[in-house]
Amino acid sequence: MTPVEPTRYPTDSRLVVFAADQPEYQQLPAAIAPDGIVMTEWEPTAEELDRLFQGGRIRIWIHTFGAPLQPIMVIAAEPECGMRGSDLVDFPNPG
Fold first, then answer.
1. Positive or negative torsion for Cα 25, 31, 32, 35
2. CB 39 within 8 A of CB 31
3. DSSP-assigned letter for residue 51
4. Is 75 helix (H, G, I), strand (E, B) or coil?
5. Which pLDDT score is estimated for 84?
């Protein structure tokens, strides 16, 4: 999967790119909301989509470097055709 700039996020969020100056890592575009929630978006390749359509699963590897794991949420978002919405939906509550 390829990380892409988020298309929907709260309007008062700050856009960042994690690892922008770290060539050993893949750059990760993200939106950070004032409450600290970080939102990223990923585009699956055609091969990955085919695996999913055939019953494959999504695996998430999280490098915590020994720190406690933070809550995460994975969703399948509606297609946005690359267009950012004018108002933004609130982040879903993972609870």
1. negative
2. yes
3. H
4. coil
5. 45
